[in-house]
# Entry
Amino acid sequence: MSANLPLIFSRWTLYKNEKHDAELAAQTPITQIHQTHLTPTMPIQYHARTPNRYATSRLARIKGIRSTAARRAFALLALPLLTGCGAFATDSGIYPLPTVRIVFPPPDFFGLDYETLELETPRGAVNFAWFIPAENARATIVFHHGAVINRSAMFDTYRLLNANGLNVLIHDYEGFGESFSLVARLETVLEDADTALAIAQARTGAGTEKIIIFGSSMGTMPAFAQAANMPDKVVALIVEGSFNQSLPAIAYILLGLQPDPVSFSLIPDELDPLLNAPQVQMPTLFMHSREDLTTPISGARALFDLVPAEKRFEELVGGHIASVTADPTYEAKLMSFIDDVLDGE
# Structure
């Protein structure tokens, strides 16, 4: 299908094993493992790129299953059990969307301190979030993730941000992770994102006076919407995997909409990036892979042209929102923008 499903699979099944790291190091030049297709017959592709230092390095061994083929088969059979039966509801009906229910790994799996937050929205729903503090934090990132995954899938990104002196508040929408609902509603995504931002704005302590909104894939929609309103404390916007109406059919499925271009009209006006991008008046970074087949780079460039504020476009490599592990320049490009914003304040 798209790059998104392998991303979910690989991020859930990959983990840190120091002994195996040492064995792999002795077998260089293989420096990074990246699974590109979720099929039991497709071989894993090995890339001898210089990795981002937070890129995950290998497939996890599923305890008690020694055969590689058996481990893959087990994981494929287990995948439906790891997803819920959520769907995005719209005025014209619903389209099934698998939203991952199992929240793993948590930040302390990687040795990071964190708080689990329960975020009550104005409509009474309770969503969950993590606040991951950084030592001597310079700012706080409010992270809006995309469809299909939950907050735990973004561990490569939040580890990178945290290691660079940034607090991270990453949240789930209703219908994702422990935030259980039979359906996930596009109409409530912005309210859920606003609730998370309000919690970040109310916090005190190191790095809480400056907030950067970071939207990924579907999360770019509430990110644009918030930035258009110039919220208090927010100093910049970052979007990765952004899109306009020019999407392949599979992207509509991943957004929980019926798979045809007409479905784009079902996105609420307050989430429409074509309406919100021209209202953004803060420094904005677009990050997008030229290899992204889910949200093609042409759509991101079209939105980039609409933003009137100071802006930067960084072209990457890798699948949809997979550049954090696939592109060795990812960290430098991301942090160059963040450093410029924070140093210029």
